[in-house]
Write a structure and sequence with these properties.
The protein has about 250 residues and is an alpha/beta fold. Helix content is about 20%, strand content about 35%. The protein folds into 2 domains: about 90 residues, Elongation Factor Tu (Ef-tu), domain 3; about 140 residues, 3-Layer(aba) Sandwich (Rossmann fold). The strands form 2 sheets. Strands 4-3-6-1-2-5 form a 6-stranded antiparallel beta sheet, with helices on one face. It has a 6-stranded parallel beta sheet with strand order 10-9-8-7-11-12. The two termini are about 25 Å apart.
Length: about 250
Amino acid sequence: MASAFLAARVIENKQWAENLFSVRLEVELQPFKAGQFVRVQLQIDGEAMAKPYSLVNSPEQDIAEVFYNIVPDGPMSNGLAALKPNDTIEISQPAAGFFVLDELPDTKNLWMFATGTGLGPYLSILQQNEVWDKFDKLVLVHAVSYANNLAYQEMISGFSESSQFCYVPIVSREDSTGALKGRIPALISDGQLEAAANLKIEPETTHIMLCGNQNMIADARSVLAEKGLRKHLRRKPGHITTEQYF
C-alpha cells in the first residue's frame, strides 16, 4: 500500500528535558501495529523535510505521539521543538516497520533494550495485552546519559505494578539512585543487568529487542553472541530483533 501524508494538528509538545520532547498530534490514523513508525513532515525554509519516528501511542488511541530529541543544528528536530498547540504538520499513513510482536518467535522472556528515544516503540508495545499474554517476563532497559532523560516514568510505573514486568534504568554520565551506571553492552557482559532484573539471558528462554544507537546495537549483539544469541530472521529464527535509530 502506498503511503500518503495527512495533516495532523499539534495537541501538546511536551518538554521532558533540555534536549528531549514528545509531540501529541490529532490525526486520523489508519490501523497499525505497536512498534511501527510514521514519517513526520515539516516545511523548513519552504521545503518539505521528513523523518521517521516510532509511534508511542497504542493502536487503540485516536492520537499520534512521537518521542524525539533535539539534534544540534538539526533543522528537523529544532523545527519540531518549535511547534505550538494548534500548529499543523503532516505524518505518513499507513505506519510501517517490522519491529512488532508478530515478528517475534515464541519464547518465555522478552528483554527490551533502548537508548534515548528508542524507548518509544516499547511504550506502544507494552500498552498491548498481546505482549503480556505472549511472554512470562518482560524486562524494559532504558539507557540515557543523564537521569532527567528517563522519560515517561508515570506510564512505566503503571507497568511496574505487575510482577511480570521489570524496569531497569541506566544512566551513563552521572550517579543516579536506583539506576545502573555504564553502557548496556558492558552491563550485559559483567552480569549486572541480569542481576538487576533477577533474570538470566539465555538462548533457550530469551528474546532480545534492541532499539536506538547503532553503536549500542552492534556492541550488544557482539556480547549477546558470546551467550549464544543470534539475529532473528524469518527464514532462520534467532533471538535478537533490532531497530536502528541513529
